[in-house]
Write a structure and sequence with these properties.
75 residues, mainly alpha, rod-shaped
Length: 75
């Protein structure tokens, strides 16, 4: 009986270790995806900022005043 119980305990222990490894791998993957999404959001905000600066520069080159550009770009 103790031998059988010992075998069951070893199987349970291996299953538990495997479960913990799988959970750790899933957490790592979720962290990676989350970081990737944050990077895309930051990149999107930076692109939007660069577009706004390019638009303002173009409007300045066209001779518009700062006040007029401000009114046009802040809506």
């Amino acid at each position: 009986m103790f031998t059988k119980l010992s075998r069951v305990e070893k199987v349970y222990s291996k299953d538990n270790e495997e479960m913990l490894r799988n959970e750790a791998a899933e957490r790592a993957e979720m962290d990676f995806v989350s970081a990737e999404l944050r990077g895309k959001e930051i990149g999107k905000a930076e692109r939007k900022k660069m577009q706004a600066l390019e638009t303002a520069k173009t409007l300045l080159d066209m001779g518009l005043s700062f006040a007029h550009i401000f009114d046009l770009t802040t809506g």
